[in-house]
UniProtKB/TrEMBL annotation:
<dbReference type="InterPro" id="IPR019692">
    <property type="entry name" value="CFP-6_PH"/>
</dbReference>
<protein>
    <recommendedName>
        <fullName>Low molecular weight protein antigen 6 PH domain-containing protein</fullName>
    </recommendedName>
</protein>
<keyword id="KW-1133">Transmembrane helix</keyword>
<keyword id="KW-0472">Membrane</keyword>
<feature type="transmembrane region" description="Helical">
    <location>
        <begin position="53"/>
        <end position="70"/>
    </location>
</feature>
<feature type="domain" description="Low molecular weight protein antigen 6 PH">
    <location>
        <begin position="71"/>
        <end position="141"/>
    </location>
</feature>
<keyword id="KW-0812">Transmembrane</keyword>
<feature type="transmembrane region" description="Helical">
    <location>
        <begin position="16"/>
        <end position="33"/>
    </location>
</feature>
<dbReference type="Pfam" id="PF10756">
    <property type="entry name" value="bPH_6"/>
</dbReference>
Length: 157
C-alpha cells in the first residue's frame, strides 16, 4: 500500500433518491404556485404574483434541504481520515482511531475512537451494499497499514 493512496467514498443510492426527490418537490411546489389564483375563498383576499413566487421559493429551499443529504463523504490516506456528514466535518489522524466498524443491521459504518467515542460515517451506507463493504475494507486496510508502520517503528528503536 503506497503512502500516496487516497480513498474517496460517497453514498450512491441516497444521492439518486435525493436528487429525484428535490426535483419532484420543486415541480410540485411550482404546480401549486400556478394554481394560486383568484380569491382566497369567502374572504376579501386574493392570491397575487408574490404568493406564487413565495411558493416556488419554499419549494426551492425545501429542495436545498433535501440535497443536504448528498453532502456526506469520507476521504482517507496514510495520514488519517476526513469524515463529512450531513452536519459537521471531522479530520482525524489514524492514531485516534481504534477501528472501523460496520455492525450488522447498522444503517452506516462508523469509526471507533480510542476515547470510546463512535463517529458515524454516513457516506458508507448499508443501502449501497457491496460498494459500502468495499469502502470499509479499504479503510481497514489503511488503518492496518498505519498500525503496521507504528509497530515497525517501535521495533526498530
Amino acid at each position: 500500500m503506497s503512502d500516496t493512496e487516497l480513498i474517496r467514498l460517497k453514498p450512491r443510492r441516497i444521492r439518486v433518491v435525493c436528487w429525484a426527490s428535490a426535483a419532484a418537490l420543486l415541480v410540485v411546489f411550482s404546480l401549486v404556485a400556478t394554481s394560486l389564483t383568484g380569491r382566497t375563498g369567502d374572504g376579501y383576499g386574493t392570491f397575487q404574483r408574490g404568493d406564487q413566487l413565495a411558493m416556488v421559493g419554499l419549494g426551492f429551499f425545501g429542495a436545498l434541504a433535501i440535497l443536504l443529504f448528498t453532502r456526506p463523504r469520507v476521504e482517507a490516506d496514510a495520514r488519517g481520515v476526513r469524515v463529512r456528514n450531513v452536519i459537521g466535518s471531522y479530520e482525524l489522524p489514524w492514531e485516534v482511531v481504534r477501528g472501523v466498524r460496520f455492525d450488522r443491521g447498522a444503517p452506516w459504518a462508523s469509526l471507533e475512537l480510542h476515547d470510546d467515542d463512535v463517529l458515524p460515517m454516513v457516506a458508507l451506507q448499508a443501502a449501497d451494499k457491496e460498494i459500502a463493504v468495499e469502502g470499509v475494507r479499504a479503510l481497514r486496510r489503511l488503518h492496518q497499514a498505519h498500525l503496521a508502520a507504528l509497530a515497525a517503528g517501535r521495533t526498530s528503536r
